[in-house]
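In this supplementary section we document a worked example of the pipeline. Step one takes a protein sequence of length 66 as its only input; no multiple sequence alignment statistics are reported here. Step two produces a three-dimensional model, which step three serialises into structure tokens for compact storage. The input and output of this example are shown verbatim.
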Amino acid sequence: KKGAISIYNVTGQRVAKLSIRPSAGRGSEVIWDGRGMDGRRMSPGVYFCRLEAAQGTITRKFLMLR
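The serialised model returned by step three reads:
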């Protein structure tokens, strides 16, 4: 099973869902361009990144700056 990464705002709304791509010899790589699911750039602020994989789930808080 592949993992999934979702980005949530401080109110708990999912604003982005990212694909995990295998990276040659390094595990996996994920790149977020700072855009929401509607294609618009997200505002600066606090967000949460949630990784769900077969091994478990982990959530981390981060600050997006311009």
